[in-house]
Amino acid sequence: MASTSASRSALPAAQTAPLAHIDVKRWERAMNDAEINKSDLNAMILDYLLLEGFPDAAMEFARETGLPAEVDHEAIQERMEIQEAVEEGRVEEAVRRVNELDPEILDTNPPLLFHLHLLRLIELIRTEQLEPALEFATNELAPRGAQNPEFLADLEKTMALLAFPDLAKFSDDQAHHPTLPPATAELLADPAFLPISQLMRRSQRVKVAKELNAAILESQGLGMETKLSGLVRLMSWGEDRLEKAGLAIPGGERGWADEVLKAEMK
Amino acid sequence: MAATTIGTLAAAHSSGDLLVVLKDLKNSVIGNTWKKVQVAGDDEVLAFLLQWLELPVDPIANPASIDIIVEIAVIIGALSNVGTLTLRPLLLSQAPTRLLNCIRATSNSRRLSASDRVRLLSALLRALRNVLVATADLVWGYMRGVSLRRRVVDTGLAGPGESRVSEAGDTGGGATAAKKAKGKEVDRGPGGGGGKGMAAGVLSMVFEKENLDTLLALLDYSTNLQIMLPLYQLLARLIALPSHREALASWSPPKHHPSSSETSSSLLFSSSNTRLTGSTTSPASTRSGPKGTPYILAHLLSTISPPAPSSGIPGLPGGASTARRNPKMLEATLDLLAALLKGQPDLAAVVRDWPVAGGSEGIDESEEGFVGELRGLMGGASTPVRIAAASCITNLVKAECPAGLSPIEDTSVRRGVLKRHTLDVIVELLKGDGVEDRIKLCFVLASLVSDESSLQRAAADRGCPTALLGFYVKLEDEESRDELGSDPASRARESILLALAALAFQTESNRALIAEYQPPFLPHLLRALRHPSYGVRAGGCQLARALSRSIAVLRTNLIDSGVADEVIELLRRECSGSGWEGAGERVGMDEGVSSEDRGWAVEVAAMGTLCNLVPDFSPLRTKLLANGGLSLLISLTRSPHEPLALNALWAVKNLTFRAAEGIKASVMAEMGYAPLKNLMMPSTPTPLRVQAFCILRNLVADQTPAELSRTTEAFGEDRLLDVLQSGLRDKDQDMQAAALFTVANLALGNERMRQALVSHVDLIEGLSDALNSNSDDVKHAALKTLRHLIEASTRSRRPRQAMLELFLPYQLRPRVQELMDNSEGFDVRHAAGGLLEVLERGRGEVGFGTAR
Question: Which residues of A are less than 8 Å from B382 in CB distance?
Fold first, then answer.
């Protein structure tokens, strides 16, 4: 969250159509009048520490603030390691570990398991294991696509990586590829191929890891995201509504919530 | 694959090896429908797995055995959620019994560490919950919408020449495909025809004392989420039947149970004599407060809200705080409480009186006690908890409505306020985006507003029907854009249709709103009647039925949109392959669920709609008769499924009401007098028998003497009189009234018929006795019959002398006078007045009703 605070003052004002500004004094008065309960803030921070995987800090924070906290170190540690495994491309390991943690998470959530399997296929393609990739797609993904037609679009998109091996090879997060063939560069520049090339980016792993993390949290009755994230999204939505109503927030701070949300995906 | 599985399992030389194989098997079945079908369909694999489901005498000496049991429990739990293809083999191999035995052994074992015990119980309970919830879905239908077909697909591109696709819920073709795929026949034993009976037996088994002792003893682990969650979820699903609720609520711990000692929480465990039959007179033990509270109810109430210290009731250590802090646990607790309260006024009274501790978080000050607590939870932060609390309050207020009183007549201000507040919360929550939440909310909404026109209007004032119609229309867009899976979309459709049906059932303005909605909604309803999910089709029928209660909507919108025609077509399609009469494959819609699984939901709902489509003012009547609909309708009166036969008889009754003689003749040519006679015999279930009498009553109504003679001749005069007499002597008052009204119509016929009626002494005795009945319907029917027998003609209103003399010993005049003076019912007073007038005209001629 430190980065969030830092980015707040650094962001430029929104460059959109001119908006009527809310009266600054009225705005400040409303801000000052807002009663913020310290224990609510503490609870929110504790929730953030627990859900984002800082059990020791959470324990210490709870002790200092007097908040009740039953911290299950092992569960948090396991959840974080599973998330890490997905972010590092060790999808099979992540699936096995989730099934050990709670076998119902993936059994009752076909879209999530499908996304994990897709990611596994992407990782096989990334490491150029084409035979196993085809076998995996045949055995695990094709039947699921037949069972759930809504999965087919994502499956087709991922299978396209096999048809364009160079696209798969050069679509990672690396800024410059000295050996990038011109034809591939052309493909990468083509917006039609963007949804395919994005599959190879780290953001795809992060997206699936977040989805999995949310499912684990939900299974443990902990809510699917931190309350802080929810508030940031609420703020972003509120700013959006104000903008649509033709109003601008004083101080040109519009957009920081959006930036925080974007940063979370990187 | 299956042969490899058993081979790999059998080749494991040590417990460690076996554990590795089981973990692989577990990972391969989780989320993979086809593999689940393969594993469950292989008897050897299943037998191998289940034989390990036994706790060793000394688990400490064999620590791997605990891990093995846990893995097997996970596999069995995962296998069960596919449908009948996997459920049937699991039930045939007695998996639930084995799981229960293993749970019992685990609970009783003194050689287990606390952590191992919790680990085992958690896995075993989850498996048991999955198997039994799937079984309950099979036997009783789905709780929250019917899942759309799940295609069981093999490895997709491999293995040419084999039929690789089957349906998860299919007991016929799907099973065959699965057999073919593994090249081996599976003996499915009684699964073919008696599967449902076997499944129902398994569900009842849980409520046997020994098994309830085993499961409910686990409530001692009230602080452990891993154990309590599956246990609550299991019980909430299994107490769908009143008898099961009774078994659960009357359970008290056995004497050797630690909880039953006086020094612990003896009040919580006090045995209860609570009657759960819906009676308003409840035992003092229950009414007097928490002392007689059923154990399970006290446990749940304590878990949600600790009792006030002043009440003297010990709370459950840690239980309430755990539930409070974990929304999932709180939701499950509330769900179980809601299920327990359904239709149980005595339990509702206990909940009202439950003393909660002051200052409890989330309590709503506007309502005292536990209901205030529920109101507080309904306004909380967690949507699933809010919905569960709304469901709880709905079942509470519905149960509180005094027995024998319809919700419309319930004038309690307190309940009215609570219902409207709950409605407000539901309407607010419906604005959320979550599909699953919306599905649950629609079911709760349907339950809340059912039979309450004031609430239906209040919901309309809050824009509820319009919002639901908007959601429904939006579903199609979302589904086409792949934003929504077909399964949730299908369940959402079903839930919205049912909620709309409930909103429109008693409220004309809501029917008009739905029928006139722009863009038109009826084309969506038409598509719903052709939808692959039988849940959506059944929901569509319910809405069509609600709309058809409006004559204006029936005559215009339903006819113009084609919905009315489609209901008949739907019924034809559904019945063409149902298998109860003649053979044949189910044609048309096949969502992969057998008729056995479907529980006749669509046919019953469609027939309910048809009842409203065939009255004399309906343009559909002629169409039904012209297109072979009558034959279908009559064939359904012979359905072995009683609700379907009942609705079919009801439709025939409506069809014959004020019908022309030609229609009556067509009906009887199709139905036959002998089957009608059989339906009127005492051996027929009473509701069906009542309808059969009503059909005869309609047949003989307004018949000329010649037509009546033909009818009685076809029926057999003596047989007819015997049947009427048995109806009159039946204990059921609806039956008596139906028989009397039939006699009343016959009495209007010819002299010969009247003589035949009055020469039957028992019939005349029964008629006289009916005047003393405590049912207004029966008295009204008796008075009408007497008038028809005695009055010579409606023009002269003079009595028939012979009849006056015949009834002389029955002292009719003072008795009828008494009815006219003191009856509460208008119909009775009016009929008594009419008869009295006729009797007065004969006064003096034979000294009728005067003392000597």
Answer: 223
Q: What CA–CA distance (Å, rounded) separates A204 from A195? A: 11
Q: Is A105 domain-assigned?
A: yes
Give me the residue label for tokens 């028809």.
B788
A138 lies in a domain? yes
Contact B53, B72 (CB under 8 A): yes
pLDDT level of residue B129 (50, 70, 90 thresholds): very high
A137 and A243 part of one domain: no
E runs forming strands in B273-410:
none
Cβ count near B325 (within 10 Å): 14
Chain B CB contacts of A140 below 8 Å: 32
In this structure, the answer to whether residues A233 and A206 fall within a common structural domain is no
Chain B CB contacts of A51 under 8 Å are none
**In this complex, is the C-beta atom of A119 within 8 Å of any C-beta atom belonging to chain B?**
no
B330 to chain A: closest CA residue: A221
| Position A85 in a domain | no
A55 occurs within a structural domain:
no
Bigger pLDDT: A239 vs B456: B456
**Is the same domain home to A201 and A97?**
yes
Return the amino acid letter for A50. Answer: L
Asked whether the beta carbons of B846 and B797 are under 8 A apart, the reply is no
Residue ranges making up the domain that contains A194 = 90-225
ipTM > 0.90? no
Q: How many domains does chain A have?
A: 2
Q: Which two tokens stand for residue A164?
A: 């364009």
How far is A25 from chain B, CA to nearest CA, in Å? Answer: 32
Q: Residues A237, A239, A244, CA angle at the centre, nearest 5°?
A: 95
CA distance A217 to A162: 34
The amino acid at residue A38 is K
pLDDT at B446 over 90: yes
Question: Which three-class secondary structure state does DSSP give residue A37?
Answer: coil
Task: Write out chain A residues lying below 8 Å of B26, CB-based.
Answer: 99, 103
For chain A, say whether B150 makes contact (Cβ under 8 Å).
Answer: yes
Cβ atoms of B509 and B457 within 8 Å: the answer is: yes
Instruction: Please give the Cα distance from B535 to B618 (Å, whole number).
Output: 27
Angle between helices B84-92 and B43-51 (to 10 degrees): 50
* Residue B672, both tokens: 């036959």
CB B369 within 8 A of CB B353: yes
Q: Determine the residue of chain A that is closest to B480 in CA distance.
A: A150
Residue B788 is predicted with a pLDDT of: 87
